[in-house]
Fold:
Amino acid sequence: MADNKNIEKEPLFSKKNIGLVMDPLTDSNPITVQVLGICSALAITAELKASVIMALSVMFVLAAGNVVISLLRNVIPSSIRIIAQLVVVAALVIIVDLTLKAYVPDLAKKLSVFVGLIITNCIIMGRFEAFALGNGPWKSFLDGIGNAAGYGLILVIVGFFRELLGSGKLFGFQIFGDPVEKTGLYALGYENNGFMLLAPMALITLGLIIGFQRSRNKSLIETN
Amino acid sequence: MGLKQNLHNLKEKYRGTKFEQGFNALHTFLYLPNITTHSGAHVRDAADLKRVMNTVIMAMVPVLIFGMFNAGYQHNLAINGVAEFLTMDNFVVGLKKILPLLVVSYGVGLGIEFIFATVKKHEVEEGYLVTGMLVPLIVPIDLPLWMLAVAVAFGVIIAKELFGGTGMNVLNPALTIRAFLFFNWAAWMSGDKVWVHGAVDGITKMNGVDAISGETILGTLAANRPVTYSLQDMFFGFIPGSVGETSTFLILLGGAFLIFTGIGSARIMISSIVGAIVMGIIFNSLAGTLMPALGMGEAVSGVIGTGSKFFGLMSFPFWQHLMVGGLAFGIVYMATDPVSASQTNRGKIIYGFLIGFLSILIRVFNPAYPEGVMMAILLMNVFAPTIDHYVVQANVKRRMKRLKTQTA
Structure:
């Protein structure tokens, strides 16, 4: 305990702490680099709005969950830690689920089971295990925000392309004109790419993003 | 100093520049490359990849020309009610629609190949020569050109270049292009309005003609309506359909040519036909129409009654299944693609059988996609390496066993 006094107190936004938020956006992105949380990235990205809501929900659950687990990290016996973590996530997910149902019922219907399935999102358990159990609450909070933002960033990029090319909309607004009235681009014979709304194209879009990122940063390429 | 020498001089000039790959690709269309391998033992043969591809294209030319006649014939038939087949008018109508498809397909596809070759500094690969010819033959005639261009770009980049180019693709690029078109713009790739030139205009009422409609035989069957075309029409191809797939007769000739030249695998073609027949017989027996299909006896009431939505396709005589839709075209020109098919002889038989078998299965049970051969081939493309693996392993096992008995 005596050593503690000698260690200088780390400032709230030290370089290391900022790194906790910024790294998951790019070089340790949970989706493109760690390849976690793919299922929901494929399932709910047909619309940008759903992507954003999903990203925010995961951010809330992950940040809050990380803080709670971090505070409890010295109390939870390691043999039952998974159960304890699940209880925390479940409680937070139910809060999110009920909030969405209360305030945005239409969107909650579209997200359907996927909000509930945040509970099984590999990113969340992964961060609890890998980070929150070994770090203080402030750092865990930043880590949660960072990883959820990295997850959300990919969701939004995929959602952007899928909604724009698949239904010609962004956040529900017609970008290319009206497909029924044949205005704007549709007057020239353009038609929406229905394939973008199906899961295979989500996977291909995601694959292209991963490929692009690895072509920019060769150190991410795995060798086998 | 003839043309040949001039070209070789030009080639030296372009060596090491950005245009080297592009120039070499054009050069080898006319002359064999003057670069030869110096070491090792090699079989000397005039058949390089480009000649092999050209042979396949030759096998498709009759189908293409027939497709042009048929496009005009179906168009005039739909407008006037009667039409002659072999008229110049028919040919011109077809040519006007099909030539742009061909030009776009080759232009976009080869353009992408050239760009990739230049950037990655390898030789331009010949694989697209066949794909570019196949693509216009397997799409509906009125398909908008920009859709074709997008699909070709997708197919060449995603299905081929990303896997490493010619010879490395898991999926058949031409079918990937068709599948992309199908799932992207299903309204342009299925239904009863796209198979005859002018029918789509009828929908949008651009020129006031809205009586034109041409349903494919499979579409009619899927809707449980009787087929109005004669057997002769089906076999020789005077029916609506994708540009090049209607004439089973010419496709058979093309297939015979491919087998004769040793390019297409007879194993795959024959086992595919057997697979389709087996599945057809199973369905015919379920629908109780096996006896009349064989030409002996009356139909009995089968497990599948006339009220079932599958009855139309299930009761269709199994041997007629071979003549309608793209099955024959797919089996002859696309299942035999040496890159995406199985490599081992026994594997080829299994691969082909499952293609035929699954084609008819998908045809019958998925009326939303009345033709199943596209899905069947793509699916089996994915499984081809697995089939090969088990064939090779079985062989290894058998020989190990033999070795043991000999030494024991």
Notes: Residues 373-407 of chain B form the longest helix (35 residues).
